[in-house]
Amino acid sequence: xxxxxxxxxxxxxxxxxxxxxxxxxxxxxxxxxxxxxxxxxxxxxxxxxxxxxxxxxxxxxxxxxxxxxxxxxxxxxxxxxxxxxxxxxxxxxxxxxxxxxxxxxxxxxxxxxxxxxxxxxxxxxxxxxxxxxxxxxxxxxxxxxxxxxxxxxxxxxxxxxxxxxxxxxxxxxxxxxxxxxxxxxxxxxxxxxxxxxxxxxxxxxxxxxxxxxxxxxxxxxxxxxxxxxxxxxxxxxxxxxxxxxxxxxxxxxxxxxxxxxxxxxxxxxxxxxxxxxxxxxxxxxxxxxxxxxxxxxxxxx
Length: 301
What we know:
about 300 residues, Rossmann fold, 13 strands, about 15% strand, elongated
């Protein structure tokens, strides 16, 4: 099979037998896409980038630039293989998760606001050390978060749906929530995890606890979180929100005890070389007649 691939990067190092196309030579909006059989959508291209799949009748491989892939599932069809970017975002997302937790605990938001007003506003903040931290999701990113936390004086308790790798089953989460100082969400969004942290579950969190979301906004019930934040009972640090992007008039912007990042978890300088390397490796495997890595779904024949 001749491989005709489309990627946002026109200068990827690809083996012979691979024809590389990109926006500069074959704009998605105006080109004939019928020959493309390997497609790597543009990072942060959103639904628009995925809709081009419908114009690629010969597409065999859909290589997502994200670890999350739930938005691509509706575009699956017979014979199509979906791969995610597992491993590409691990370090960037994990460092942000830890950074958000520390920033929230140690008052970084207050420091910046005080600096803007040239105010020396000393006060005592809650220590990050001695925290009991629940990791909800313990895949490759969750394990990297745990590794990053290993240098701190904290207790890390991982939770997964299956209870594998020494984790506790998420079905037992409610028993443990009242004892956790910090909860970090890093699990896929699916039918089981949508609004996992609803009104009832948020209410189980101890007073003064912090919830950090670097997964997907829909895992937290936004209205329920707003109610908790407005009561000033708990804290939150969010890299993802529901809705997203967050509208300018959304009440989350003015909620107390909240730190918001604009979904930058995986989007650091580490992203491009790692994602380029993943696509190059996938195309190299295909050129040698091998299967690709990171396969997460296959369309039914």
